[in-house]
Automatic annotation (TrEMBL):
Protein name: Phosphoglycolate phosphatase
Keywords, ordered alphabetically: Hydrolase
Lineage: Bacteria, Bacillati, Actinomycetota, Actinomycetes, Micrococcales
Any one Gene Ontology molecular-function term assigned to this protein's record: protein tyrosine kinase activity
Natural source organism: Mycetocola reblochoni REB411
EC number: 3.1.3.18
GO cellular component: cytosol
Principal EC category: hydrolase
The keyword Isomerase is assigned to this record: no
Length: 244
């Protein structure tokens, strides 16, 4: 891991969503378990369910639960129907201190790019729920048909959208919590910061530029003072407003 003091200032900061900005594991894992059981498949162990959070859900059905392609497609449809019923923000919570970091970076004019393997429409809904959409220059997630779902592909699309706005992605850094964030950043020449409050393991930190335990440490690493409230959206925005 590269020493923190060697990090350069960033022209763009890319952020993962699940396990980085919001704790969405309770909702994701309960819907996955229910979907599998209702379709006649074994319920994954708690450890297996936790591994589902981060990568594309379709990959999890194949690689963690061992479903065939057709079974995985059916399970994904079932899972998404459950998400549609209750909303992707159900059983999720914003990690304390992260909204302040997003607000402070935005105030300083640093472009922010959301890059998540969650379907983009769901990501937008979650950010809107917490009043965070206005902080991001681009919001990029998986396509509904899963053609774009890997972190490397999502980051590539985010870089393309930034370029269309005349914004160079380098030097840039991706903040995430899983090994796919490290790999997705490296695929595009970006640095990576892994946050330890998410769903990754110590082994997943290998190859990351740096890792942090708290939002305060992340703020310092991004060149900010400790997170401050002035970057927070208004109460009305947090209740469901904000940019789309």
């Amino acid at each position: 891991m590269i020493p923190v003091e060697t990090l350069s200032p960033w022209s763009v900061v890319f952020f993962d969503l699940d396990g980085t900005i919001v704790d969405s594991a309770p909702g994701i894992t309960s819907r996955i378990a229910a979907s599998l059981v209702e379709l006649g498949h074994p319920r994954p162990t708690d450890a297996q369910l936790r591994s589902y959070v981060g990568p594309p859900i379709l990959d999890g059905f194949r690689n963690i639960s061992g479903l065939s392609d057709s079974e995985a497609d059916e399970a994904l449809r079932h899972y998404r129907s459950r998400v549609a019923e209750v909303g992707p923000e159900h059983d999720s919570a914003l990690y304390p201190g992260v909204a302040e970091i997003l607000g402070e970076l935005s105030l300083r004019g640093i472009p922010l790019a959301l890059s998540t393997s969650k379907p983009e429409s769901q990501a937008v809904r979650i950010l809107r729920h917490y009043g965070l959409t206005g902080f991001f220059t681009v919001i990029c997630g998986a396509s509904e048909d899963e053609v774009r779902s890997s972190k490397a592909d999502v980051v590539a699309e985010a870089i393309r959208r930034l370029g269309a706005l005349g914004i160079a992605a380098h030097p840039g850094v991706l903040v995430g919590d899983r090994v796919m964030d490290v790999e997705g950043a490296a695929a595009h020449g970006l640095s990576s910061i892994l946050v330890r409050w998410g769903y990754g393991s110590a082994e997943e930190e290998r190859g990351a530029t740096a890792a942090v335990d708290t939002p305060v440490q992340l703020a310092e690493l991004l060149g900010l003072a400790a997170p401050v409230p002035r970057g927070l959206p208004s109460t009305a925005d947090a209740a469901g407003g904000g940019a789309s």
